[in-house]
Amino acid sequence: MDAAKLVNPVYLISRRDRILPLLRWHGLRVVLPVARYAARHGVALCDNYRRLVAMRGRHHGRRCFIIGNGPSLRVADLDKLCGEITFAANKIFLAFDRTQWRPTYYNVED
């Protein structure tokens, strides 16, 4: 397959049904870079990238807060973040019974 075709979004869309099985056969070392490149240019090859492309620029120009839920986190301060775009992770749910605030985006990592 010609490498120039793989970076052409029109070709990727029109031949998606043929390209995806080929890329899967070659493994993640080929699939991920091509899928990321296509998603950055507005062509989503799979559902995950389609959802990511849809979220691009959703909060452009707005501020956001990343909540680190370590021992120094005071739950009372979280209520000040109501209405703000926030990212939180893991055991932040333990604070939910003591605050009205909820994160906009929640991530779980093991």
Q: In which range does the helix fraction lie?
A: 40-55%
Number of helices: 6
The rough form would be described as elongated
Low-confidence stretches: none
Describe what this molecule looks like in 3D:
This protein is mainly alpha-helical and 110 residues long. 43% of the residues lie in helices and 10% in strands. It has a 3-stranded parallel beta sheet, with no helix packed on it. Strand 1 (64-66), helix 6 (75-78) and strand 2 (85-89) form a beta-alpha-beta unit. The two termini are 39 Å apart.
Provide the fold topology:
Elements (H helix, E strand, L loop, with lengths): L2 H4 L2 H6 L1 H11 L1 H13 L6 H9 L8 E3 L8 H4 L6 E5 L15 E3 L3
Parallel strand pairs: 1-2, 2-3
Outline of this structure?
The chain is mostly helical. The chain has helices at 3-6, 9-14, 16-26, 28-40, 47-55, 75-78; strands at 64-66, 85-89, 105-107.
Key words describing this protein structure:
mainly alpha; 110 residues; 43% helix; 10% strand; 3 strands; 3-stranded parallel sheet; single chain
